[in-house]
Amino acid sequence: MEVGKTYTIKLNSGEELIAKVTGVHLGQGCVVVTNPVSIAPGQQGMQMIPSMFTADIDKEIRINTSSISLYAFTEESIADKYLEATTGIKMPEKKIILG
Fold first, then answer.
1. Backbone angles phi, psi at 70, to 5 degrees
2. What does the pLDDT read at residue 60?
3. Phi and psi of 66, rounded to 5°?
4. pLDDT for 21 beyond 90
5. CA-based angle 67:69:71, to the nearest 5?
6. Where are the beta strands (DSSP E) in 1-99?
7. pLDDT digits (tens, 9 = 90+) for 65-76
């Protein structure tokens, strides 16, 4: 995992998270992330909900590496939605200009 990148993480429990990685501590057996959100089905399709409701999100959130079954870079359009949901920053749509 690369620090500063947004990843989709599948836990051994089957839960799927999206989070930005801020540290990788393999010697300690953990990955440090910010603003983890869980993916859950909703009436309008898949939705992002906070993974932890009572945690102080200004502090480190650690995921035990033995709890991770899969991880991958988050698809770009989903990563943009994640950024918007966690920071309020809206990414402009990418359009092709034909001339």
1. -145, 155
2. 86
3. -75, -10
4. yes
5. 110
6. 6-11, 16-25, 30-42, 45-50, 61-64, 68-73
7. 999 999 999 999
- Cα 31 to Cα 23, 47, 72: the distances in Å are 6, 24, 14
Q: 13 by DSSP, 3-state: which? A: coil
27: tokens are: 């010697």
Residue 53 φ/ψ region, left for φ over 0, alpha for ψ in the -120 to 50 degree band, beta for the rest: alpha
Q: What are the C-alpha distances in Å from 14 to residues 9, 39, 73, 90?
A: 10, 11, 18, 29
Q: Residue 94 gets which letter from DSSP?
A: P
Helix (H) or strand (E) holding 68: strand 68-73
CATH 2.30.30.100 fits 6-87, yes or no: yes
Q: Determine the Cα–Cα distance for residues 54 and 17; give it in Å rounded to an integer.
A: 17
